[in-house]
Amino acid sequence: MKIILRILSVFLMMWCLSLLTSCKKSSDSPNVSGINPFSNGGNERNMIVVISDMHMGADLTYAECKNNIAPLEKLIKQIKVSPNVKELVIAGDLIDEWFVPATVNTFEGSTQADFAHRVATTNAGVFDALNSIIQEEKILVTYVPGNHDLVITADDIESVLPGINQSREASLGLGAYSPANCPKIIIEHGHRYNFFCAPDPISNQDIAHGTILPPGYFYTRIAALWMKQGMPSTPHTIPILTLDGSASESQDLLFRYWKDWAGVTHSYPITNAFDENIIVTNVNGFTGTYSVNDLLPYQSNPGGLIDVNLFKGIQDNWESRQTLNNVAVHMSSTIAIDSTGADTWTDQQSVIQYFINPNSDKRIVVFGHTHKPLLFAALSNDNKKCIYANSGAWIDTQPHQITRDFVVITPQSSDVSSQTYVKLYNFKYEVVNIMAEDSLRY
């Protein structure tokens, strides 16, 4: 715990420093509209574009990205004609297998491969634009998995985007990518640090052998159902759990986990009773149909032992999950569970996992996952400037946030005065606007 507190205190210090030394933000100066973000002013093809969280769905009656499909296609076509773009990196959540209403059979009785093709057909303009870039072979297109396409396989992606470059770790559902000749840059989705969204190859093996689906999958299915039902506002009352001072660490963690789920049921109050079997699975080893109560920790007697049906023991296996998921700097189970809903915690992992980690030499980190575009500077373990960017999202609506976001990195040249530029843009109203920018030399 002392180590975690020390890391957090260092992060806070660097965050304050970044406010003084970081990028030029849109709040400090007016946006520049109508610019070409894919031009470096010369003839060299060296620019790296990062887009994440496109959330392409198989059915537009519930998909999160509908109105933004055409603008996304338009932007991809602009990338294709640029003589300066070297690579387009898709940093996760391309194919959305999670945002499906709980009562819907995701694969409609068919296969995951068929689902991937349904997504490509539903979003044909976007996939045709991507395939056009891949086939032309002037710009490398690279895919890194996210949590919403956690169990979408390499073959599934290849079948709809033939020839795409894929950056995957041995563990399914994870990837961290450094573009060629840019070893100081790392791009990943960012979900491996989230208790609800990181792959879970430990829980539920007696129910769904080989599954890696984490609790966030079921959470998202419930949220999608709530959206489909017209976003009702009256939450169900759930039993209140109590915990006395003599409870074990495991029971305390499970109580904290229950509080996370209590927040979910309050935020997404579906009309169905919580004992109703409505969550249709038939995905990643699961074959059953489950109720909300199967996910909620419970007590048979007030003040008694807390238990749970799905994800039994999840509160005790976080340390092992982090090892299996190649997390460099481990966080405690308490912090992980309590930070589940804090998007800033994911952004902070860029500092903890890469910048102040003495075993890392990364100077530029790009995540997605949170759907909140962001750019800030920090200091490394050896007091060198670093830059973090979050590439935002392309879903239609995101409360209090701009969507249609992307990041462009222009690497430095051999000239000692050259800088690596990191710029955050959005495509609001189909006009490119710069949101933030910064630079460094490594």
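That was protein one. Protein two is written in the same sequence-then-structure order:
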Amino acid sequence: MRDRRIVHQIVQAADIQPTDIIVEIGPGRGALTKSIVESANSVILIEFDDDLAADLTERFADDPSVRVAHADARTLDTADMPEIGDRPYKVIGNLPYYAAAPIVRNLLEQAHKPELLIVMLQREVAREMTAQPGKMGLLSVATQLYAESRTVCHAPPRAFSPPPKVHSTVIKLNVRENPAVEFDSVDSFFKLARAGFAAPRKTLAGSLAVGFRKKPTDYAGLIEQAGLDPKQRPATLSMDDWGALYTRWRESEPTA
């Protein structure tokens, strides 16, 4: 990244304090790393690429505040990091576009979650993660179940060298103390959510019918009991709406 204004906005959004533990995902050649290391007491660099991980290890060999972990952030378990333990930590990262959604979900589903994430994503992915009711999709729900999301800034291709073919966006995820929906298990909640978006252009009743392979009339009453309109589109539901719908669904199908 060659646009230092964007680097500044990322670091500023993270509100890094001297005592913070920072996990940087995908540091690459260190465009962000220098600013992070200058501000934080402890930094863990997660790099998947063999050569880049080796270069970073050599570069920070004499800095005891920095550790390089050659790992895949999609399967990373922060419980394996002694620097973190049960202490708060923040995540900053320019995420690889092909793995961005799995990385974010893995971090948000950790037993010991970060307090916030500042991540750069492909613009379309960022737009869905931060979408409001009316434009929400399954990724919106999966993200906002665990965090409040907002856009920090946009990064056009010219901000990078070489410039990519896509536009990027930096978002901030403030992780909730508890999920936005009270559920029996995360798997049962996503069973409902996936069905709810099985046919997103249909009505909510119609989409649930497609997802569960039943008739729309089987869900109209349940949706109304949740205080919703069976004819509204799945994209219009807020997280509170999903919570109400989940409660009614579990009452009607307790073994689901």
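The longest helix spans residues 239-252. Keep this in mind for the problem set.
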